[in-house]
Amino acid sequence: MKNDLVELFFREKSLVRQHIESYDYFIEKEIHEIVQANNTVVSDIDHCFYLRYLGIRIEFPTFVENMVEQSVYPQECRTRDITYSANILVDIEYTKNKQKIIKKNVHLGKMPIMLRSSRCHLESYAGTKVGGNRLKDHKAQECVYDNGGYFIIRGVEKVIQIQEQLSRNRIILETGKGGIYSSVTSASIKHKSKTNVIYKNEVFYVQSNIFTEDVPALVVIKAMGVEKCREIYEYLGIECAELIEYSYDEIYFRRIFSKSAALLELSKFVKLKADEDPEKGTERLLRDKILPNVECSVNLRNKAIYLCLMIRKCVLAKKGHLQTDDKDYLGNKRFELAGQMLSILFEDTFKKFNFEFKKSIDKILSKRIRTSEFDALTFFNLQTGSISSTLNRAISSGNWNLKRFRMERSGVTHVLTRYSYITALGMMTKINSHFEKTRKVSGPRSLHTSSWGMFCPADTPEGESCGLVKNLALLAEISTDSDSGATERVLAELGVTEVADSSPSAFYAPSNFLVYVNGSLFGLCQNPVKLAQKFREIRRSGLLDKFVSIFFNKKEQALYVSTDNGRICRPLVIVAKENAFWADRQIRENALKNRTFTDLVTGGFIEYLDVNEENDSLVALSKGALGPAHTHLEVADCAILSLVAATVPFPHHNQSPRNTYQCAMGKQAVGHVATNAKKRSDLLMLKMNYTQRPLASSLVLSLNRYNLIPAGLNAMVAVMNYTGYDIEDAVVLNKQAIDRGFARVEVYRTLKIELNRCENGRLEEIHSEGGVEQVVGPGTLVREGDALLSKVRPDRTVRTVRHKGRAAYVDRVILTRGEDDPFVKIVFRETRVPEIGDKFSSRHGQKGVVGLVVQQCDMPFNEQGISPDIVMNPHGFPSRMTVGKILEQISGKAACCTGNYADATAFEDNSAPGAETQVEKTCSDLVAHGFSYSGKDVFTSGVTGEQFESFVFFGPIFYQRLKHMVADKIHCRARGPRAVLTRQPTEGRQKDGGLRLGEMERDCLIGYGASALLSERLMHCSDEFDAHVCAKCGVICYKVRCSLCGMKPVVVKMPYACKLLFQELMAMNILPKIGLVTGK
C-alpha cells in the first residue's frame, strides 16, 4: 500500500514542486496584491494629477532582436547568454490636461521566468512519467527529464534556495540580557516591523523602530483606545496583577488618563512630518507601524488587546507557567521559497519605482513654463529599466539588500551545479539557515525531533555548515497562502465568538479558550477539542485548503489556526477511514488506477499536517503497529529521507555518518547531466560515457529518475588484500576494464571570446586570410599556446587568442550575439580515463583513491574466469560498519543470476509473514544458481596460478567516479610568474604559482638544523635581492652612499619581502638597523 501511495504522489507532482508552486502563486496572486496595495501615485505639486494601476500581468518569455520581439526558449538563453524573462504589462489610468486617459498593456519591465512554471514555454513537468511534453521539449532542445525550478540569468542557471526564518505574526517568548521578553515580527502587504514587550525596572515597555526610546506599554495601550484601567486589567487577567502594579504607577506619574493625553505623550518619542498634527500623526504611526498584522478597521482596540496578550505571556513566563519558545522547533519556523523572496524584492522595487516616478513628475510640474505638453507616460517609460535590472541583479548576485525592510542577505541564490542529474536535484531541495556558520553552537545544528518526516536526517554537509544546511524529506510540502476569510467564516459557523462581540471579563474564564488565526486573535470558544474535530472534518471534505492547520495548546488555553505560507507539511493516512479501500488490496489497486493523490486528499483518506498539528496526533509507523489511540498512519517509511539520501541502498543497515557521507559524495559523482548535454555550453561539464542502472535499486530511484540518468556503474568488486597498494581505502583497478571504457569521463570546458566594441564604436571582427576565417575548427587537437581565434580591430591590428591548459579537442565553435555585442564560444572536449589518484566511492560513504592499475592477466579470477574490476581492502568493513554494502553485493549477485533488480528500499522487507526474509531469499537464489549463500567465491592468483586458501567475497557493487581527479590537482613548477609587490612566486594552481613552504614546514627544517635548505627555499628560490646596507649605521640605503652617515654601502643578499618590510617601517618613523659581521 505504501509504495502505491508514493508512486501515486509523484505521478502528479514534480520533484521540485515547492519552488514551482511558490513562483506560480507569486505570479498569479501576490503580484496583483502588491500592485493593488500601491496602486496610486499622486503629485504634491499638482493635486489634480494622479496615476492609478488598474491591473498587471506577466506574459511568456520573449527577446527583442533587430526591433522584433519573438519567443525565446531556455536552451537559446543558455547558448546566447541572455536572460529567460517575460514582459510585465500594466493597465494604467492617469490625467493629462485634466482629462482621464486609460492605457492598456504598458510595459513596466521584465520578470525572470522560472523553468517549468505556468509562464514558461516548456510544459509543466508534474509527475515522473515522461508523456505528452516529450515532443515539445525535443523541439526546444530541452532535456525531457529536467525538472525546472530555476532561472536563467545571462546564460547562467540560478536557483533561489529555500530560506529558513523565524515565524512571522506570532508572539515569541525569548530570553535576552534583561530577562524574558515577548516579540512579534509583523508583516502585512503594506508594512513590516518588529515589536517587543520588555520588563525593565519593574515596568513593562514597548520597543519599536518608530520610537526613539522604550515607551511604557500602558501608555501605548491607552493611546490605542483602551482608556479605562479596569478594562486593561481584564484584558491582562488576574495573574498579571502583581507584576503590572508599577506599570500603572508609571501612567499615574505621567498623568495620562485619556487617549488624547497618551497620544500627546507618545508624540515626544516619534518623528512626525513638519506640519502634521501630533495626535493624528502618532495615531497614524501606531496604525501603520505597530503590529501591522493586526487588522483595525475603525479603531486600534484590537492592537491594544494584542499588546495585552504579549504582556500576559511575559508575566506567565516569569511566573513559570509558560516556557520560552524553542527557536529550533519547526513549528516556530517559516520557509521562504522563490515566490516569497521575489515577492519581497518586487514589492520594494515597485515602491521605489513609484517614488522615483513621483519625483520626476513633481520636478516637471514645478516648472511654470513648459515648452511641451506634459505626458506622464513618457516619464513612466523612462523608469521601466530599473525593475528589470534590480530583479536580474538580485538573482544573479544572490544579494537581497532591501533598505525599506532592513534586509541584507547574501548567498540567497546559487549557480545550479550539474556534475550529474542528481546533483542538480539535490540543490533544489536544500534549505539554507542564516545562522552564523562560524559559531560553535550545538542547538541549531542538532537534529530536532520535530523534523521527523520534514527534513532528511542524513542529508547535511560536513564541516562548519553541518546541521545548518538541511534538505527536505521526500514528501514534504511547503504551504502557500490560503484564504483566511473562508477559514474565519467556518470558525464563526462552528460557534467561535469574535473579539468584537466578547466582553473583556470573558477572555480568561476557565471554560473559554482564545482562538488565533495566523497569530492574530480572532475570538473565543468553549469546546476546543470538539471544534478542532469538526474543523478537520470540514477540511477533509475539501471545503477548506488542504494546508490549513488547527492545533490546541492546553497550557496557553488557546486554539491556533494557520493559513499562512512557509509552513512545512507532510501527507499522512487518516486511520478513521479504515475500510475496504485500505483493507482489501485488490479494491485498492483498482481504485488507485482511476484516482490521483489529490482525489485521496479531497476524499478524506489522506491529509496534510504541519508540525504543530502533528502534536495533536498519534502517528503509527506501520499498519501492524496501529492501536485504538492512533489517528494517522505513515504514507511510507522511506519518506523521511531526501531525494539524494534515498539513493543509498539498504541505508537502515549502515552506520549513520556513512549515509551522510554518501549524501555529500552522491552530489560529486559524475554521470549524465541531461539528455541535451551535447547542446549545452556550460563553463564546465563532466559526463560519464557509459553509465548503468544500479542492480540494487529502490522505489525512490525510479521516482527521482536516477535509474534513467544514473551517475555510476556496476563494478565487479573483490574484497581481498592485493599488492599492498589498497591500504587506507585505496582501490586497485583492472587495466583491461579501463580499456573497455570503465568509468571513462569526458570533460567539457567552454571558452567565451568577446568581440569588443572599440573607441570609435565599431566592433572587432574575426580575422580572415585568403577568405578563410582564422578560427579553430571542430575536431582539432589544441595544446598549450595553440592559436584559437584571431581578432582584427578597426585599425587593422590583429590579436590572437591562444589556448591555455591541458591538451583537448575542439568539440564545437559557436558564433552568436547576446544582449550586447557578439561573441564566440569554443567548447573543448577532453577524455579522462581512470588513473592513479582519481577518487572513487560506493553508495555507502566509502571513498578511496586509485592506488594501482593492474593488467588483467595479473588479476585474480574465479571459477568462471571472471576477474574483478575493482579490488578493495576488507579492512574497510569492520570499523565503518557498512552492512548495507555487504547486502548490496550479495543482492546484486543474486540479481545477475535471476535477472530481476534487487529491492534496496530503506526500511522495507517485502517478504510475506512467515516466509523467508529478504536476505534469506537472496541467499537461496545464490544457492539455486550454484553460488555460495555467503557470496564468497574460490579465486585463483593471476600471478602464480595457485588457488587462494581463503574464499573471496565477490559481487557487483554500484561505484561512482567523483569529480576529484588527479589531472585537475597535479601541479609543479620550476620558474614562473611572481607577485609585483613582494617579488615572491604567485600562489595557486590557476596562476601557475609556487609550492608554499609554510610555517610548520619551516619549523621542521629548523628542528633538523637544515639551514642551507631553509636559505635556498625561502630566499634563493623565492625572492633573493641585493640590498645596499650601510656598514656603519646598518640602514638600508641607496647604492651610491648612505644618507645618514655618507659611507658607501655594501651589498647584502636578503629576501625582497624583508627589505620591503624594513622600508615600510622606515616610512612609519621606525628605524630598523642591520648588524653586519665581516666574514672570515
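The above is record 1. Record 2 follows with the same two-line structure.
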Amino acid sequence: MFENIDNRTKLLGDDLKSELRKGSKVRIASSCFSMYAFKELKEELSQIEELKFLFTSPTFTKDTIAEGVKKEKREFYIPKQNRENSLYGSEFEIKLRNEMTLKAIAKECANWVRQKVKFKSNITNSSIPNYIGIDHQDGSSVTYNPVNGFTTTDLGYQQGNSIFTAISKTDFAEQSKFLFSMFDEVWNDKTKVEEITDNVVEMISSAYQENSPEFIYYIILYNIFSEFLDDISEDNMPNEATGFKDTKIWNMLYDFQKDGVISIINKLEKHNGCILADSVGLGKTFTALAVIAYYSLRNKSILVLCPKRLSDNWTQYCGSSNDTTNIFYEDRIRYEVLYHTDLDRVGTAHNGRDLKLVNWGNYDLVVIDESHNFRNNNPVKDKETRYDFLINHVIKAGVKTKVLMLSATPVNNRYNDLKNQLAIAYSQDYDAFEKSLDTKSNIATIFRQAQAVFNDWSKRPPNERKNKDLIDALSIDFKILLDSVTIARSRKNIAKYYNMNDIGKFPDRLPPVSCSPELTKRKDVPQYKEIYQSIKSLSMAVYGLFDFVLDSQKDKYERKYDVEIKHSGLTRSGRTSGIKRIMTVNLLKRLESSVEAFRLTMLGMLGLNRAELKRLSYYNAGQMRPDAYATKKVFNYEMFDQDEDGGLNLVQTDKGKEIHIEYADIDRLSWQKAMEHDVEILEHLINELGKITPEYDLKLQTLKEIIDIKIKNPINAGNRKFLIFSAFADTANYLYENLHKWLKDTYGIESAMIEGQANKVSLRHCPKKTNTLLTMFSPISKKRDQVFSWMHRQIESYNDPKLNWSGKIDKHEFDDCFKDIDVLIATDCISEGQNLQDCDMCINYDIHWNPVRIVQRFGRIDRIGSKNKVIQLVNFWPPLPLNEYINLTDRVKSRMTIVDQTATADDNILNPDDQMDDYREVQIKKLREGENIDLEDTNSGISISDLGLNEFRMDATEFIKTYGEPRRIPKGMHCVIEKDASRGIVPGVIYILKNQNNNVNINRQNRLHPYYLVYVDEKGEIVNNHLEVKEILDSIRVACKGRKEPLYNVCSIFNEETNDGLDMSKYSKLLEKAIESIIEVKEQSDINALFKQGSMVLSGTKIKGLDDFELLAFVVVK
C-alpha cells in the first residue's frame, strides 16, 4: 500500500491516530518535538509500548561555549535554541500557547515521556532523513516520510508556511525493514548520537513547576529588553573593578539610590549627560557623591558647580577636607567646588580660589547642583553669560566633559528649560545627541511638538489637567528622550515600588496648622490692610529717577543708557519702573515676615530719601555745579535665590553702568514732592510700628504659644525640636533675640540661628559654624558621634595624664558640642540639601508665594530614615482673605515682571506667558486650608518619574550578569503574586504579549513595541492599558523582585481555581479583554491622529485580535 498525505484532504495527525495501537513501537527521526503534538495524539500515544525519538540535528546536547558569549557567536546557536524551544510549541503554535494550558500539558507529557519515551540527538554535522515508523504487535508496520517535525503544524492541525505538503505513507515490509534498520544503526552508535532523555524531561518539567516571581520578572525583562541587551556595551556600564561598591558612600545608600547611581553612570557613558530629578528628601546629594566617587576612583578630574548657599553641602565631603563633618573621609573623593556665580566673575572666586588659574577645559565630569539655574539661554548684547561661559570654556574647551545635573524641578512648564540643560552636556551639538538616541524626529521637533501638546493641555481648567492625559498625548520620541537622559523618582514612587523595610518609612504627616495672627492687640496701631494701602501709596521716587527726566531730555538718556535685552524687550527705563515694583513688593513681603524686618527696611528707605533730598536741596541752593548729576546704582540687582521661585531677597551689585542724570534735566520740584510724600509716610509708619514691641507682637506671641503647647504635649514622645524658617535674616535675628533666653530660662532648651553670615547659638562655648550647629540640632541624621569622634579621643587624652593632650579643643567646647540644640531658626540658606529629620515640626514664620519653597523647607524633616512617627508643618499667613493674599492678577504678575526686569540676563528665569497662576493658587489654597502637598503636586507639568524605564534595563543587565542568559525557557510561563492594595496591585492578571503584526504600532504610541503589557482585574476591567508600561513594570518589579521562591500560598489558590491548569477558561477570557483594550486604545489613538495628521493614518493598521499576539508570560495576582 502506498498513499500520499497532503495535510489538506488528508491529515497526517488523523492517519497516525488510526495507526497507533496498543503495544505499538514507534520510531521518529525529526528536527523538533512539540508537547502540543503530544496533546493532539495523547489518547493514542498513551497506548503504545515505546517511542524512540531521534533529533536529526544537535538538540538538547551539552554546550561547548559558555553562556555569556558575545552576540555574534550567540547567533550561531539560534537554530538550536529554536529547535529546543519548539518543545513548548513552535512558531506556528502560538494560538495553542495562548490558551495558557502549557502547565497542564507539560505535566501530562512529562509523565508519559518517563514511561514510554527515549530521546537521543544527532551530535554530528551530518544529516539524518526525517521519518516516522510504527511497528505493530501483529508484525505489520507503516512508515511516513519525510516528516520535518513532530508539531501540530506537521500533523496538519495548524497552518504553517509551506506552500504544499507531500508525505508518503507505505506499509511495504522491505521498505519498513530498511528504514528501521538504518534508524537502529544510528540509534545505537554512541559516536553519532547522545542520550538526552533526562534533558528533555527536565525541560518539560520546568514548564509545570511553580515559578518564583523574581524568575518571571527576569524572563519578562529579558524578552522586552532583549534588543537593548544585545546592543549594550561594557563600556557603558560601571566598572566594578574600580572598587566603587566597596566605598563607604556606596554602602550608605538605599537600594533606590544605588539603582540611580548605576543608571546615571550608564547614561553618562552612553549619552554624555544626565539629569537627576529625584524629589525633595530623596538624597540627590549622596546619590551624586557616589557617582563622583566612581569617577574619582577612575582618576577623573571633577568639578561641582553649586549655588553659594549650598556650598557647605559639597565642600565638607571633598577628599581634601579634614573637617570632622566629612563622614566619607576614608573614600578620599576628589573634586573641586565652585559657585555658579564664579562663571562670570573675574579675579577671585567666592571661596578664595584664583579664577585666573582654573583650567576650565580640563574637567572630565561636571556636576551642576540646582541645574535649573541654567535652563535659560538668553543671549545678552556684548556680554558672555554664565550659560555661555559654561558651554564655551568648560564643556567645549579641552577634554570631553560629561555633565550630571541635579534639580528637583528641571522643567518649569516650558520644555525648552530641559532642552537648554541637555544642550550643556552636548556643547549644543544636537546632531551628536540625536545619534545616541533611538528617535525618529530631531531634537528641535521633539521639543516643539511637546510644547504644543503641553500648551493645549494647560488651557484646560485646573481640575481637568490630568498628568495621564498629558503623558498619553506626548510623542513616543519625547518619552524616549526623557527616558534616555533623566532619572526621577518621587517619594510616592519609592514608597510604592521599593521595600520600605530596608529604607524606613516616611513619617506620617499631620494636617498642616495655619495661623493668621493680627499684628498686635493695640488699638492705636494700624493693622495689615491700612499698612498695605500706605505701602501702595508710596511713589518710590528715589528708585524711579528716570520717570522724572524732562520729556525734552528723555531721548538723550535712552540713547545713552538703554541696553537691549533679547526676548524681554526691556529698556533701561523699563528696568527703572521694575525696581519701583521690586521695592513695593519687597516691603509687603517684609511686613508679612515680621514687624522688625519691615521697620528696618523702612529705616533704610527713609535714610536714602533724606540723603537724596539733602543733595537736591544743595543743588537748588546753588551749592553745587550747574552740571551736577544724580548717580544711581539701584538699577543693578541680582536675586539672592537664583532658582525657580526667585525669592525677593535682592543684593545690589557693581555690574552694569551707573546712571548719571543731570539735575538740570530733572523735574526737580515733582521729584522733591514725591520723595517728601514718601518720607512723610515712612516716618508715620516707623513711628506707629515702633509701638509694637515684642510683648505686643501677636505673631511672635503666637509662635511662643505653639512652642509651649508642643513641649508640654509632644507629637512624638520626648521630641522637643523645632525648625523655624524665615525668608529674611532680619526676621531670623529678631526671633532668635526674643526666643533664646526665654527658651533657656523656661524650658532649659538650647537654640541657634543660621542665616549664612552671622550665626548665633545660646551655648557659650559652642562653635558657630553652620555644619556644627546643624549636627547639634539633628545629631542622629548628621551622625554626631561619628562626626565628633575626634573630640572623644582628645577628651580622653585630656582626662588621662598618661596621654599627651593636643590642646586643640577646650573641655567646655566639648561639653557644648554634645548638647542638643532643640530650636533652630534659619533662613532659606538651609532649605535645601540638609537632612534634619531628628526634628518633627517645621514652622514657616513667613510664607513664600511659590509652594515649591514650602515643600523644600518641609523636606528638611520629611525624609526617609526619620525616627519620628509623625511630623507637623505650621504655616503663618497674613490675616487676609486668601484671594487678597494671593492677588495673582497683581502681586504674582508683578513678581514675574520683577524677575524679568531686574535680574541680570542670567537670572531672567521666568516668562509670564509660561506661568500657570491658577494652578499655584490651588496649591497655596490647599496649604492654607490644612492640606499637605508634595513637590510633584506643585508642578502642573509632566512628572519625569512617570516615564523612565532605565531601572528595568539595569535589572535585566544585572540578571544576565548574575545568572547568564535564560535558554530553553518556554513561552507562556507564569507566576502568582499576592495582592497589595497599598501599591495598587489588585487581583487580576498582567499579560506580556508580543505583537506579530508590524502595522499595529504605526503611530508609534507604544514605546515597547512589539511588546505589549496589559493589566486587567478579575472583573475584566483594565487597570493599566498597554501605553502605561511604566506603571505596569513598576507593579511587577515591586511584587516580584527579590521573591526568589514561589509563593505557595497563592499558587495553591490559583491551582485549585484552574484544576492545576486544565481549566484556563477564566484567564482566556481575561486575555481576550486585554487584547480588546489594545484594539480600543489604538483605535482611539488613530481617531485622534486622524484629525491631527490626516486620514492616511488609518490605512493598514487593523488588529485582528488574539491571532496578532503571542503570549510570552503572565503574572497572576491573588
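The two ends are 58 Å apart (CA to CA).
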